[in-house]
UniProtKB/TrEMBL annotation:
Residues 9-64 form the HTH deoR-type domain. InterPro entries: CBASS_pafABC_assoc_protein, DeoR_HTH, HTH_11, PafC-like, Tscrpt_reg_HTH_DeoR_CS, WCX_dom, WH-like_DNA-bd_sf, WH_DNA-bd_sf. Residues 318-339 are annotated as: Disordered. Keywords: DNA-binding, Transcription, Transcription regulation. PROSITE patterns: HTH_DEOR_1 (PS00894), HTH_DEOR_2 (PS51000), WYL (PS52050). This is WYL domain-containing protein.
Length: 339
């Protein structure tokens, strides 16, 4: 009677574990067919996995079967090659998330890298990523507290620190809906019952109070999804993901010189050194100032509010220039590369 080698058994255990991780329930007969062994062998291999710490539960029913569940401790994990590379890359850029996990991520990356085959290790090492941690970072415990309140649909009570030289903390409450990472910072989006309006809060300025408030029924988020909602808020729009102030101008520059700095604006070449730019901002003054940075002649096509904003901006600039002390009051500045 042939006896399976330990290498064959180990390989089969890894295949069995991979199958159990791929779907929720596996009939015993189907597992035996996929592995090319008897159902009795499958039962023995399942017992071996349990001894290694994998919580494999037998599922009762006409077909019988097995299910891999969450356990009380972390057993050895199995990843295919693409998953292992993805995990290593994710750990390498984790420092840029602002979640305060950079040290743990670095240790985890070292652990993963040590067990990677040489060919995969070279792929990971060839990826050069310089991830700068944002400042300030959000405490991991705060992120977990916010996430727990979102899942439980419980009102969150917290102290919110305002920015500025004289930092103060205001007691607030919110019905939390989403926790989102954007540009290295974490934001909480939720409904403010005191102001009867949607609000966003920077998580690094929040200090949660214990316990949470009462449970609530979640409202529908404006815009339909949190990405649209947050993008609209950063544009100064209360609802749609569009700039509240949009204008159209002609710039005396080639389109190739405008496009890299146009952001989400629409660039259209109208001549060798003429470009139509349609773009927006959160205020007319901000839009005029943004367009002025192109440092060229500007023809405003519309609307009248943008033309009025340029006029007001020029008056402010004139008043600022009139208040200067003159050339004698300021030292000359050297241009880059010398005078």
């Amino acid at each position: 009677m042939p006896i399976a080698s330990s290498t064959t058994t180990s390989s089969r255990l890894l295949s069995l574990l991979s199958l159990l991780q791929a779907r929720r329930d596996w009939p015993g007969g189907l597992l035996a067919e996929r592995l090319g062994v008897s159902e009795r062998t499958v039962r023995r291999d399942v017992d071996r996995l349990r001894e290694l710490g994998y919580p494999v539960r037998a599922v009762k029913g006409p077909d019988g079967g097995y299910r891999l569940e969450a356990g009380s401790r972390l057993p050895p994990l199995l990843f295919d090659e693409e998953q292992a590379v993805a995990l290593a890359v994710a750990l390498r850029i984790a420092v840029a998330t602002g979640a305060g996990i950079e040290e743990a991520a670095a240790r985890a990356l070292t652990t993963v890298r040590q067990v990677l085959p040489a060919r995969l290790r070279h792929r990971v090492d060839a990826l050069e990523i310089s991830a700068a941690a944002p400042d300030p970072q959000t405490d991991t415990a705060t992120l977990l507290t916010l996430s727990a309140a979102i899942r439980a649909h419980e009102e969150l009570r917290f102290d919110y620190r305002s920015p500025g030289p004289h930092e103060t903390a205001e007691r607030r409450r919110v019905q939390p809906h989403h926790l989102v990472a954007r540009a290295g910072r974490w934001y909480l989006a939720g409904w403010d019952p005191d102001r009867a309006a949607w609000r966003t809060f920077r998580a690094d300025r929040m200090t949660p109070r214990i316990p949470n408030g009462p449970r609530f029924t979640p409202r529908e988020l404006p815009g339909g999804d949190v990405a649209t909602f947050l993008s609209a808020r950063f544009k100064g729009s209360a609802h749609a993901d569009t700039w509240p102030c949009r204008g159209e101008v002609i710039l005396n520059l080639p389109a190739t010189a405008v496009a890299p700095f146009a952001g989400d604006g629409v660039v259209e070449e109208t001549g060798p050194d003429r470009t139509r730019l349609t773009t927006g901002s959160w205020s007319w003054a901000a839009l005029a100032a943004t367009l002025a940075r192109f440092d060229t002649e500007i023809e405003v096509l519309g609307p009248p509010e943008l033309r009025a904003a340029f006029a007001e901006l020029s008056r402010r600039a004139a008043r600022t220039a009139a208040n200067e002390r003159g050339p004698a009051g300021f030292p000359e500045r050297e241009t880059p590369g010398g005078k």
